Amino acid sequence: MNENLFFKILPVIVVFLGAYFSVNAQQVPLGQENLVTNLDQELSGESAKRNLEYISRLHRMRGSRDYDKAIEFITSKLSDYKLESIELIKIPVDGKIMYGTQKSRANWNVNFAELWELEDQKGTWVNKLKIADWEAIPLVVAQDSKSGEVTAALIDVGSGVSEADYANKNVKGKLVLTSSQPESIASLAVDKYGAAGIISYAQNQVTAWWKEDDNLIRWGHFDYFANTQSFAFMVSLKQARNFQERLSKGEAIRLHAKVETETTPGNWNLLTAIIKGTDPKLINEEILFTCHLDHPRPGANDNASGSVAILEVARTLKKLIDEGKIERPKRTIRFLWSPEIEGTTALLNYKPEFATRTKFNIHMDMVGGGPATKAIFHVSRGPLSIPSFINDVAESFGAFLNETSIAYASGDHVKYPMVAQEGGKEPLHAILGNFHMGSDFEVFTEGSFKIPSVSLHDWPDRYIHTNMDVPANIDPTKLKRSSFIGASSGYYIANFTDTDLPLLINRMKQQVLFRAHEMLNYSNQLNTEEEENAKYYFWLAEIERFNSIKPYAGISTAMDVDYKKYISNLQISIGEGNPIEKLEVENSIIYARNDQLKGGMLYFSYDYFLDHYGTKKKQPLLLSYSGIRGGGGEYSYEALNLVNGENTLSEIRNILSTEFGPVAIGHVKEYLEALESIDVIKRLK
Fold this sequence. Notes:
Elements: H1 3-24, H2 33-42, H3 45-55, H4 65-80, E1 84-93, E2 98-99, E3 102-103, E4 107-121, E5 124-133, E6 148-156, E7 175-178, H5 182-192, E8 197-200, E9 232-234, H6 237-248, E10 254-264, E11 266-275, E12 286-292, H7 300-322, E13 332-338, H8 342-350, H9 353-357, E14 358-365, E15 377-380, H10 389-409, E16 431-432, H11 441-445, E17 453-458, H12 476-494, H13 501-523, H14 528-547, H15 557-574, E18 591-593, E19 602-603, E20 606-607, H16 608-613, H17 632-641, H18 649-660, H19 665-677, E21 681-683
Parallel strand pairs: 6-7, 7-8, 8-9, 12-13, 12-14, 14-17, 15-16
Antiparallel strand pairs: 1-11, 2-3, 4-5, 4-10, 6-10, 11-13, 15-17, 18-21, 19-20
Helix pairs in contact: 1-13, 3-7, 3-12, 7-12, 10-12, 10-13, 13-14, 14-15, 14-18, 17-18
């Protein structure tokens, strides 16, 4: 874009938005005054946190005894709250059963685990210092560890991921200290060189606070499907440095490790309940609230917070309905608790009626982080492959809370402060928009299902996946506010009809200006050709976003013409853009999905692509590509989403470049050809 034109247009947008918010800062969006009033009065961050405090006591690994205890607890609460059609769905798992592209993992439990440093007392080795105790801190045992017991010396292998790390080191029968995840070194350290076990201080989840607190113990993993017959303990960076300093001085460190675990076939238990709709024509259309319940103890923000937030939404909506303060919704509202990603993928394949009935998904994963977590809250959109008005709805309520919470914190009179008595009073400062991967909603938005979704989540969180993700760091006000955005968005859509169109369309016009501002800021970083491409596909997505309303309300011809004229006028002001045209015949290739295979390529602990394509072949460059706004995970996920029997190779490349940053068409072509070779997609033209 011409720089002068950009700065000419930008003030117009900013002035309009400033004027809008100066008038509407505390105005309830979408005409939902009664709903907002009642949600503000009834939603309880304290109630949600009390439920969280219990769930956080449980080591909720998939299919484990503690996971099932959490399910039992939520079931009892749903019964207390008078939810309807409470159902436990049992999905068989054994490490072999496939659900679409997800291979199930058997259930895993820990019975006992301790790690002791020993000392020699007159020729006898005795316990000196307990280094790790599963009963006290379950995170000390790496996920999918096997049983084992050994008394052995400790040897530092550094990262442990290359042959050089083992040069001149005899690790057979020893315990190895590593900075890497256990799954990254198991094939060398254990399988090849015979180490008896692993002691890891892997530092995952990089943020600005990475490695700042050296007392944190982080979540470790083995690759379940590699079936490594060993165990690993996770220790803090502080403990690792103590070991390293002593080893560097020539001191011998002798440890005793004992681990007792079980990996058994069984079931994943998924819990669901509903608030039944009233309209006979719409009752089978469902608005689905999701979270993931599984996580190591304590897992307060990740993701006991999301689990109790949707429980609080269920309680609040049902109580308000029973008291006659709000109407029972026309569409059915459903709530689901499951293992993260693999559980939802299994469900949509095991019971495909869930995919058919679900029209919109509201996902909550990490929604309670208080100031100590340094969390930034997001109301994230779905990917560009599935533009939807649900994003405008959720962002409207998010923007409302942003403005009212800022005003409240500033001492202004606010009708709806949306704070908990036991919570904080800080502004929400939610980031509205942007697509982030990393939780169950990406299963719903995946091209097999194409269910419009919104994701409410914190990122960063300096305590994620550590022993300090505790209830003390959870803010009841944050729980109330995130529950409000979810409850108001879900209930609004569940009740959405023709009468809601004028206010929604007016709001969408305002939201277009926000997104246009975002697009201009982004496209201004690009060369002229890519900038024009970004504009072109931006406007296409905005029209598709508007068209997404049509299955749910009767948009008149006049409304349709008016909205498209509005977009056309913006295009004249900002620029219509042009797609990048690749004239080579091969770039007009069109692919279609294999309808018999539903799901994405990479889910927890199982990589469908690598399992079928193989690790010895050269991997497609798209998988490791890094763009302006996304990496290989985003590019490859969305590339497959865009395979729909209509988009050409060139169009897929252009949309990916609009969404995540310019990418070579050769990278996209190589990846799609790899997918074709394993029958995930097929060439039509």
